[in-house]
Amino acid sequence: MLALLLAACGTPESTEVAITIPPVSLLPVPQHMEMKGCHFELNAETTISYAPEMEGPAQYMAEIIERATGYQLSPQPIEATATENAIVLSKGATKNNEAYVLSVDEHRVTIDAYHEQGAYRGIQTFFQLLPPAIYSTGQNNVQWVAQGITVTDEPRFKWRGLLLDCCRHFMEKDFVKRYIDLLAFHKMNTLHWHLTEDQGWRIEIKKYPKLTEIGAWRTLNDGTNYGGFYTQEDVKEVVAYAKSRGINVVPEIELPGHSQAAVASYPHLSCTGGPFEVETEWGVFKDIYCAGNDSTFIFLEDVLTEVIDLFPGDYIHIGGDEAPKYRWENCSKCQRRIKEEGLKDEHELQSYFIGRIATFLESKGKKLIGWDEIIEGGLVEGATVQSWRGMEGAIEAVQHGNNTIVSPTSHAYFDYDLKSIDMAKVYTFEPVPEGVNEAEAARVLGGECNMWSERAPQETVDSKVFPRILAMSEVLWSNESKRNYTNFHERVQYHYQRLEAMGVDYGFETTPVTFEPTFNNQSLVIDIQKGMSNLELHYTLDGSAPTTSAKKYETPITLSGSGTLKVQAFKDGNPIGPVFEQTYALHYANGIIPELTHPYSEYYKAGGDGGLTNGVRGSTDFRDGQWQGYWGTNLEATIDLGEAKPISTLTTGFLQYNNAWIFLPEWVKYEYSDDGVNFTEYATVKNSVSPKEKGQFIHEFFADFEKPIVARYVRVTAKNMGKCPDWHDASGSDAWLFVDEIVIGR
């Protein structure tokens, strides 16, 4: 990764000088670059000069350089500085605010941009030409040289963001500022700051002090208080810091749902009057702002007035997602509002709610962003839709004439495990939905990666965001024609040195251990793939945690019976990552594709049509890729064994996690047949577990035969609850049924 370069560009009499210089390995890849046969050396005598519009970027550049090198370069207006050994930030002609032209030769570095935003982006490209130590502090004995190059560049999308959820887990102010730096280093331009939730209100509102006195804290199971908040001075500091790095901060103040911390502080804002506590669990909860109470809107307008004063950007995010309608359906004030406003139902009441807030924001010169649920009941004109439940919300928004930001769970949710979304999958993301026309495509502002923090306290965020955000930065910046995963992956390998210099505790590109089962006669053969070539794998089958003394994985493992395989990855003798484990079930139906009466959800496929017979059991993580989900419908699966076989047991595994609307079936019916037409019921196993049972757990519905029955066909029917029950926070919403395996015992 080193190079020998000539000392000068285009000078025939120049002599060849050996010098260590970093490779050109830019992330994201620019639109156009042209190499020169020279280099620029940054030293203590280098000057920085700037056009009047570029003073902020010049000061930022000097700050980063001084931190790494110790050089105090003191930027000056262009008229007062020399042209040799110089860095010049000039005003360009292009009208794209983030476009820039970077030129590096042996005499000077020029960053030409129309707007300071473009200058900030050009500065990051120049920093990536320098040694990775430019991102660290106080480095000595470094040759601060950069390859001669011309880069002409601009982003494909104007919105390139990261959502940082500081509500489920509070994140310190300096940590937020650090992430602003990390966004800037990677040419992202938006921090979506999630500030209010059921589990915590994080922003000081002077008119309503109880929001932080009560709403910012929750009582944990051990009796301790957990939480925190940002004072308005903290917010001003963060926003100013972001501006000095070319980053816009967009606050999210959730409404009408995800508001339990607010109604715990001011119960009169709810439909029932409380009392409430700040929520300690994750999920969707029924107590939301009362839409029939005028004091709700007075409160929200007061809150938003203070928020607007703190955030100078164009946009305010109001959430709008996952707002159960149960309380509104049973609230006389909300029902009166529906009647008085001539609304059809509670969905239109939500649209009324959002529209009223949008009108207020517009009166203050702000634009509204909401999650794709704001489409339900009627989309407010001018609102920007953030599409998260797939791309359908984005399509509907742009076809309606509204703008959209895309951040679907399929590619952009970085709280998800690598088994669901790894770096390679992020790189395949295409922000413009299929089937939209050119005018509609122009309404796609860009995208975000979402770092929700239910299971991600501050110390784990780095390993979830990085390196996946590198893929998203290139997807959102670079044209499709410039994207090549093999080339990108090579550049990422060098970029790790920069991340290390930044102090980023980055995670894996993909799952370091992947199990690939195949069936061979009566056995299951497990091939284990390593996510990194320099890992050594050790495994056990007896339930113990693998150490380096356990058997080393070298060839595929053959299982002749059901069991749990545990694997630990080691690097240089040290364990890397958690113990990876997978439970397998060998049975008659392995590898046979069931006939399904009702389709499974595209979001929870468990590998597709054969997911219920692949021999792989699910874990308590419903996103582990092994659960097949049915939303509001029953499971009915018929399995043809090919010939009559003696069946001794029938077992089906189901998951319950009622906070995520996942319930066990009411009952499971097992039937068998010789001809696939006429079925005989063997057993109906009723659910013995309360749907109110909290936590995430697996329950197996088991039918044991006194003596084996001989049959060719087996049919399994599981009765979905249909709707979340009245006591549930999502009462009336479709319930999920999650199944992992139909085990036909030998």
List keywords for this structure.
746 residues; alpha/beta; eight-stranded parallel barrel; seven-stranded mixed β-sheet; 35 strands; 22% helix
Topology readout:
Blueprint: E1 5-6, E2 16-17, E3 32-41, E4 47-50, H1 55-69, E5 76-77, E6 86-91, E7 100-104, E8 108-113, H2 116-129, E9 145-153, E10 159-165, H3 173-185, E11 190-194, E12 196-197, E13 200-201, H4 210-213, E14 217-219, E15 225-227, H5 232-243, E16 248-255, H6 260-265, H7 294-310, E17 315-319, H8 326-329, H9 332-340, H10 346-363, E18 367-371, E19 384-387, H11 392-400, E20 404-406, H12 423-427, H13 438-441, E21 444-451, H14 461-465, H15 468-477, H16 485-502, E22 513-520, E23 523-530, E24 536-540, E25 551-552, E26 557-559, E27 563-571, E28 574-584, E29 595-596, E30 628-631, E31 635-656, E32 667-673, E33 680-686, E34 697-718, E35 736-745
Parallel strand pairs: 4-5, 4-6, 6-8, 10-11, 10-21, 11-16, 16-17, 17-18, 18-19, 19-20, 20-21
Antiparallel strand pairs: 1-2, 3-9, 7-8, 7-9, 12-13, 14-15, 22-23, 23-26, 24-25, 24-27, 27-28, 29-31, 30-35, 31-34, 31-35, 32-33, 32-34
Helix pairs in contact: 1-2, 3-5, 7-10
